[in-house]
Design goal:
This protein has a single domain, classed as Alpha-Beta Barrel (TIM Barrel). It is an alpha/beta fold. It has a ten-stranded mixed beta sheet, with helices on both faces. The chain is globular. It starts with a helix and ends in a 5-residue tail after the last helix. The longest helix is centred in the first third of the chain and has 15 residues.
Length: 314
Amino acid sequence: MDQAYRDLLIKQQYRLHNDHAAVKLCHWMKESMLHERHCYKQDFYGISSHRCLQMTPAINECSHMCTFCWRIQENDFEVREWAEPKEMLDALIEHQRKLIWGFKGDPRCKPEMFEEARNPNQVAISLAGEPITYPYLSEFLDECHRRRMTTFMVTNGTYPERLEALDTLPMQLYVTVAAPNEEVYRKVCRPKVTDGWDRIMRTLEMMPSLDTRTVIRHTLVKDVNFGWVDDYARLDNIAQPDLIEPKGYVFVGGSRQRLTMSCMPSFDEIRDFSRQLGERTGFEIVKERADSRVVLLGHPGEETDVRRIHGWTE
C-alpha cells in the first residue's frame, strides 16, 4: 500500500491490518453508544448497533468506481500476502477496541454498553472495496459463525464465479443493484471490467438458489439512477430476493467530489419509489427509517432477527 494512501486512510479513522483489511467505527455505532440512537439494521433485522464490527477484508480492490461511493478511488493495488481469517478477525476486533476506548469515560455511555461493544457479535462486511475478492472468505465466515457472530456482506455482483464457489455464505447477502439497465450502469458504476453488466445478471440469476437470506439494495441517486421502476422490478424479479432495500444516496466521503447535495432523494421520494416497486414485485413495505432514507420491502415476518433464524437466542 502506498504510504500516502495509508496515511489518508488512518487520518479518516480507518485502522488497517496487513494493508488489505480495515475497520472503521460506524456513525450509528457512536450514536448508539452515546445517544441510544441506533442503525436502521437494528430496527429491520435485530442486530445490535453497538456490537457491530464494520470491516472489509479487501480495501485494496473493487471492479467499480461508483459515482455515489464514499470510498477513496484510484488507489487499487495487488496484495502480496493475504492475512489468515482468524488472525485478521482478532486484529480488527482489537483495533475496534482501541477506537472505542474513549467512550469508557464518557458519562453518556453506559458501562454495560461499553463492555458489550468490546465484544462485537455482528460483522458488517461492507466498509469499502469488494469483499468477495478476499481468497479466504469462506474460512473467514466460518470463523465468525464459530464465534456466534452474525454476518452481513455487501457485494456489487460482478464476481458470480467467486460467489458460486463459496462453501460458506454470509447469514445475509446484499447485492447492490445501482442501475436499472446497462446504459445507466456504465455511467453510474463506471466499471473497470468490460462485461460488468453481464456478470451482475449472472449473479441475479444465481440468487434464487443461494441458501441464505438475500437482499437487493438499490442505492438511488436523484437525477442519476433514480426512477425506471419497471426496469428495477424486472431485475428484482429475476433475483427473487427475500427482501429489497431501496435506499437514498447520502452526500458523504469521496462522493462529494463527484455529486452534489441535490442528488440526495427525500425520504418521501424513496417511499413512493418503494411503493411502486412493491406493486411490481409482489412485496409490501414492512419497515422504514426516514433518517436513513431507507425502506424495507418484503413479506411481514421475513425481516426477523437473524440470530433467531439460526437458533442463537442469547
